[in-house]
Design brief:
Length: about 100
């Protein structure tokens, strides 16, 4: 009986970090979802709509933007640039969630 209890305790201790990692991953996903929803909503903001439309037509800006995006990847192996960008996006989502919640 004591041995089973000991095994259960050890298993629980081993599983705890994975739950906290899962919770952190879920929170990061929520932050990204909030950021994306707010960006989709604010993209039509009256203050910025004309400037955004002009940028969409600006070939020079679009080439520069594409060069920036080419530095990113969505693969599992993340380079330092990807990690920095992801951290910025997650922090922005977290900040937005705090302001709007």
């Amino acid at each position: 009986m004591a041995r089973r209890f000991y095994i259960l305790i050890v298993m629980a201790m081993l599983l705890m970090p994975s739950r906290s990692f899962a919770f952190a991953a879920q929170e990061d996903a929520e932050n990204m979802a909030v950021l994306m929803a707010v960006m989709n909503y604010k993209i039509d903001d009256e203050e910025h709509i004309r400037n955004l439309d002009a940028l969409r037509e600006d070939a020079r800006f679009n080439r520069r933007l594409q060069r920036m995006l080419d530095k990113l990847t969505n693969s599992r192996t993340k380079n330092s640039t990807n990690k920095k960008v992801l951290d910025i996006l997650e922090k922005a989502g977290k900040d937005l969630k705090r302001v709007l919640d």
